[in-house]
Amino acid sequence: EIVMTQSPAMLSVSPGERVTLSCRASQSVRLNLAWYQQKPGQAPRLLMYSVATRDTGVPARFRGTGSGTDFSLTINSLQSDDFAVYFCQQYDQWPLTFGGGTKLEI
Amino acid sequence: QVQLVESGAELKKPGSSVKLSCRVSTDTFTSYAISWVRQAPGQGLEWVGGVRPTFGAPNYAQAFQGRVAFTADESTQTVYMELRALRFEDTAVYFCTRAGIMATANYFFAYWGRGTRVTVSP
């Protein structure tokens, strides 16, 4: 099983700042990496897939980079709507696995 | 627009079974895998397994092998997940999801239902 590790677990940031979230895979997942955003009481929402492709309606301030085992999600000019938990997920191999999440708080 | 509508909350006793449903509103029901992803209270996300309706056998995460079964009814575009021998640690919200890639066994989750809360308690 591919273990996905996200860091940090929690990040305190201010609106307007830029933040970078990290996701590391225990073995190469090539470019088969997705990111999700989850707000309290809601289902996760797909943000990015294939590392860097934004899903429909996702603002351009979200940017995904990386390949193999090391990935990042950068959010430029944080807005109040961005404070949430972010999960990465690999879909290179079964079982499909998620990282533990990074919580962005104000 | 793809919509996933799940069945309502369940309260179950340890050792019993639960069967959840997910009705999928789409014109491509058999083309994409439907998965269940669960989230225990305050925890992360865990893939339970997935099935491409009417096309091949379901795939289950090893942690659930032998306890879970997925079935699909093409006539109602509904997928069912049955989880047996429930344990306290099965208490979670179970999300029905649809894959973002057609006709593949490796996928991300493009569409999510609102989730079904399952509580296992004596």
Summarize the structure.
Chain A is mainly β. Chain A is built from no helices and 11 strands. Chain A has strands at residues 4-7, 10-12, 19-25, 33-38, 45-49, 53-54, 62-67, 70-75, 85-90, 97-98, 102-105.
Textual characterization of the structure:
The complex is a heterodimer of chains A (106) and B (122). Helices cover 0% and strands 48% of the residues of chain A. Chain A has strands at 4-7, 10-12, 19-25, 33-38, 45-49, 53-54, 62-67, 70-75, 85-90, 97-98, 102-105. The model of chain A has no long low-confidence stretch (mean pLDDT 97). In chain A, strands 2, 4, 5, 6, 9, 10 and 11 form a seven-stranded mixed beta sheet that branches. In chain A, strands 1-3-8-7 form a four-stranded antiparallel beta sheet, with no helix packed on it. Chain A is built from no helices and eleven strands. The N and C termini of chain A lie far apart (34 Å). With 106 residues, chain A is mostly beta strands. Chain B has 122 residues and is mostly beta strands. Helices cover 0% and strands 48% of the residues of chain B. Chain B has no helices and eleven strands. Chain B has strands at 3-6, 10-12, 18-25, 34-39, 46-51, 59-60, 68-73, 78-83, 92-99, 109-112, 116-120. In chain B, the strands form two sheets. In chain B, strands 2, 4, 5, 6, 9, 10 and 11 form a seven-stranded mixed beta sheet that branches. The relative contact order of chain B is 0.32. The model of chain B has no long low-confidence stretch (mean pLDDT 94). The interface between A and B is medium-sized, with 23 and 21 residues.
Secondary structure blueprint with pairings:
The complex is a heterodimer of chains A (106) and B (122).
Chain A: E1 4-7, E2 10-12, E3 19-25, E4 33-38, E5 45-49, E6 53-54, E7 62-67, E8 70-75, E9 85-90, E10 97-98, E11 102-105
Parallel strand pairs in A: 2-11
Antiparallel strand pairs in A: 1-3, 3-8, 4-5, 4-9, 5-6, 7-8, 9-10, 9-11
Chain B: E1 3-6, E2 10-12, E3 18-25, E4 34-39, E5 46-51, E6 59-60, E7 68-73, E8 78-83, E9 92-99, E10 109-112, E11 116-120
Parallel strand pairs in B: 2-11
Antiparallel strand pairs in B: 1-3, 3-8, 4-5, 4-9, 5-6, 7-8, 9-10, 9-11
